[in-house]
């Protein structure tokens, strides 16, 4: 399934690039068409903007020569081509071909786009390699460069995820924690579209639709309105463990679209001034609402909050492009800095209000809400850094114990929520039905369908940390010691 999805996604991505080649070319079967080397060179020429040497014919020698030229060009850009050999590409071996294409996508598409986010998210940039490495020895320089690139590879993925998180965070409780099951509902795709082109989607209606309906709608709108090629189908994403590389490739196209949304500086500053004024108005409305509803019932308070949030979400649409603009602090004008501060302050006040309302939920819903938030917070946390494997082992073990303890309560909370009688002694509703539906949705979509994947991810991290620690120890032991006592001490510590 994963191989099939990657082949389909990568083929569509390649064809979207080859359409820009002169003359345009197209791939129909990735494993077969790549064997001649011509289309591979076409792809690299479009991505790099360089003219690459090639043999014009199609005999075995010429095809081999073209593939060798393509691989040599990639190596000249310091790309690691692990276990990727000319013979395997000529044979069209699926795993090797997919590995090669992913390397190309990541380097030329995802890394190049994520580089623009490096300043904003404080990630190491590849441009800093010259500053880090000033050794005259070529071999040492190459090793350092490779390490920097490997660190950036992790950072490029993280930067793209942080960008996606930020686009979604402008629309309430829609959250992404990975490039896998987080996208299954289709809501993150729709949220990003709404941020980039306000008014194209109705997120409230989307929350009531099925995953497949949302995915189908998102891919349709992206293709028709944003001119983003349809690399995925709903059935590729609405599964237990979607392919991470395929989703990353598709999401990166939305980042590419956002980079192309250029406005004149005058227009931007005018929009910023309007946004600051609107945010100040919203802050006053919220303060007044908190005073007016101070003595109201929970039901009425929540109803007023929903009314405020509906108007707030509608009103922010015209300002989403400037609110989501990715610039480093140094590039911001005074107006943009003020706008960001006002936005952060208002969102903080809204979140504080929501938190207080959640604490006021009637029993036993208050404890279920607290449990939901604890699980969601744990799932949203970044995984421990494997660069310190000894520390990571303890952290992963602790996370696994906490997560298992939380999930032991799942069935009882589910039963309680489904059997909750939503009326008081006067037969009046205690909680708005929308709040109950939201809690059920979070329980099913965010937790039930992802808990096994999350648990496996934690165990995979633990095993990786143990393996890294073992390798570190083996490297330490690969030398002679002066005394028997020093070896015994080392073994005792281990």
Task: Spell out the blueprint of helices and strands.
Layout: H1 2-18, H2 30-33, H3 38-48, H4 60-76, H5 86-91, H6 94-115, H7 118-121, H8 129-132, H9 138-169, H10 187-196, H11 203-206, H12 211-225, H13 234-237, H14 244-260, H15 265-292, H16 298-316, H17 320-323, H18 334-359, H19 365-380, H20 389-407, H21 410-419, H22 433-448, H23 451-477, H24 484-493
Helix pairs in contact: 1-6, 1-14, 3-4, 6-9, 6-14, 9-14, 10-12, 10-14, 15-16, 15-18, 19-20, 19-22, 20-23, 21-22
List keywords for this structure.
494 residues; mainly alpha; 24 helices; 69% helix
Task: Provide an overview of this structure.
- This protein has 24 helices and no strands.
- It is an all-alpha fold and 494 residues long.
- It has helices spanning 2-18, 30-33, 38-48, 60-76, 86-91, 94-115, 118-121, 129-132, 138-169, 187-196, 203-206, 211-225, 234-237, 244-260, 265-292, 298-316, 320-323, 334-359, 365-380, 389-407, 410-419, 433-448, 451-477, 484-493.
- The longest helix has 32 residues, at 138-169.
- The model is unreliable at 122-153 (pLDDT under 50).
- It is globular.
| Sheet/helix structural class | mainly alpha
Unreliable segments (pLDDT under 50, ≥5 consecutive)? 122-153
Strand content: under 5%
Instruction: Kindly state the number of beta strands.
Output: 0
Radius of gyration from the CA trace?
26 Å
Give the ordered list of helices and strands. Answer: HHHHHHHHHHHHHHHHHHHHHHHH
């Amino acid at each position: 399934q994963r191989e099939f999805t990657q082949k389909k996604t990568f083929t569509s991505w390649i064809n979207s690039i080859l359409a820009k080649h002169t003359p345009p070319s197209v791939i129909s079967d990735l494993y077969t068409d790549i064997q001649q080397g011509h289309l591979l060179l076409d792809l690299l020429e479009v991505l790099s903007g360089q003219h690459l040497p090639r043999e014009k014919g199609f005999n075995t020698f010429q095809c081999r020569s073209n593939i060798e030229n393509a691989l040599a060009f990639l190596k000249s850009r310091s790309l690691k081509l692990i276990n990727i050999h000319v013979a395997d590409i000529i044979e069209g071996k699926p795993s090797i071909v997919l590995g090669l294409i992913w390397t190309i996508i990541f380097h030329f598409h995802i890394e190049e786009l994520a580089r623009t986010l490096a300043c904003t998210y404080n990630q190491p940039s590849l441009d800093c390699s010259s500053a880090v490495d000033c050794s005259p020895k070529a071999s040492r320089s190459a090793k350092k460069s490779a390490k920097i690139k490997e660190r950036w590879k992790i950072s490029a993925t993280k930067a793209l995820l942080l960008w996606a998180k930020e686009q979604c965070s402008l629309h309430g409780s829609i959250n992404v924690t990975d490039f896998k099951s987080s996208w299954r509902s289709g809501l993150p795709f729709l949220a990003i579209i709404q941020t980039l082109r306000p008014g194209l989607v109705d997120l409230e209606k989307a929350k009531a639709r099925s995953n497949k309906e949302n995915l189908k709608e998102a891919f349709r709108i992206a293709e028709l309105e944003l001119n983003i090629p349809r690399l995925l189908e709903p059935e590729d994403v609405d599964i237990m463990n979607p392919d991470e590389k395929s989703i990353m490739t598709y999401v990166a196209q939305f980042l590419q679209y956002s980079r192309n949304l250029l406005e004149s500086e005058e227009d931007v500053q005018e929009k910023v001034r309007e946004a600051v004024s609107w945010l100040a108005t919203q802050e006053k409305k919220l303060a007044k609402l908190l005073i007016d509803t101070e003595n109201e019932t929970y039901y009425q308070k929540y109803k007023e909050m929903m009314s405020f949030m509906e108007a707030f979400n509608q009103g922010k649409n015209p300002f989403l492009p400037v609110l989501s603009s990715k610039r480093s602090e140094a590039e911001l004008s005074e107006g943009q800095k003020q706008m960001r501060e006002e936005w952060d302050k208002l969102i903080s006040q809204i979140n504080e209000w929501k938190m207080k309302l959640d604490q006021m939920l009637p029993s036993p819903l208050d404890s279920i809400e607290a449990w939901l938030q604890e699980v969601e917070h744990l799932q949203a946390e970044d995984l421990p850094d494997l660069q310190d494997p000894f520390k990571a082992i303890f952290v992963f073990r602790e996370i696994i114990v906490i997560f298992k303890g939380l999930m032991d309560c799942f069935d009882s909370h589910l039963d309680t929520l489904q059997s909750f009688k939503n009326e008081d002694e006067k037969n009046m509703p205690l909680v708005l039905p929308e709040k109950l539906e939201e809690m059920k949705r979070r329980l099913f979509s965010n937790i039930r369908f992802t808990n096994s994947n999350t648990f496996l991810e934690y165990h995979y991290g633990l095993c990786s940390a143990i393996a890294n620690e073992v390798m570190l120890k083996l490297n330490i032991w690969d030398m002679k010691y002066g005394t028997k006592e020093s070896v015994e001490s080392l073994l005792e510590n281990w």
